[in-house]
């Protein structure tokens, strides 16, 4: 009886070890893809995050605000199409920092990110302000954008 339990446990441990090894297998390194994305040895690279905050200008005219938001979204699409923005979106809840949304720009230069964020009509109108931070993340981050169109039925 002890031998059966021992053999069963040995088989179970061996199976679990094999499954764990299989699961932990590292994908084959793709040097061409890594080079095209500008990765470092860890598959990472620097980006710049821009946190949008509530600006000093309050726009009460609903039509004017709608126009500014359409311009804001069109500018995001333009910057994304140019490869400058890799992530953009609003926060779903109010927060004590008054962050409204964020961009992750495909640059390590805070100055370049600031030039790009200043092309936003809502920034220009003072509806949004911003804070800029350097950030380090996966160099593969921009790859999701090419698939986003496949999963969205409408553009905002």
From TrEMBL:
Keywords: Signal. SUPFAM superfamilies: Dimeric alpha+beta barrel. Residues 1-19 form the signal peptide. Residues 63-135 form the YCII-related domain. Belongs to the YciI family. This is YCII-related domain-containing protein. It comes from Chryseobacterium luteum.
């Amino acid at each position: 009886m002890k031998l059966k339990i021992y053999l069963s446990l040995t088989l179970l441990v061996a199976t679990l070890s094999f499954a764990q090894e299989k699961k932990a297998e590292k994908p084959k390194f793709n040097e061409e893809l890594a080079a095209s994305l500008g990765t470092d040895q860890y598959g990472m690279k620097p980006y710049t995050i821009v946190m949008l905050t509530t600006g000093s200008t309050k726009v009460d005219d609903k039509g004017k605000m709608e126009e500014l938001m359409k311009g804001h979204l069109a500018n995001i699409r333009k910057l994304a199409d140019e490869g400058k923005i890799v992530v953009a979106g609003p926060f779903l809840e109010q927060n004590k920092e008054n962050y409204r949304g964020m961009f992750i720009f495909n640059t390590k230069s805070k100055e370049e990110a600031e030039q790009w964020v200043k092309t936003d009509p809502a920034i220009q109108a003072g509806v949004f302000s911003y804070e800029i931070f350097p950030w380090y993340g996966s160099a593969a981050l921009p790859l999701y954008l090419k698939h986003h169109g496949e999963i969205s039925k409408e553009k905002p």
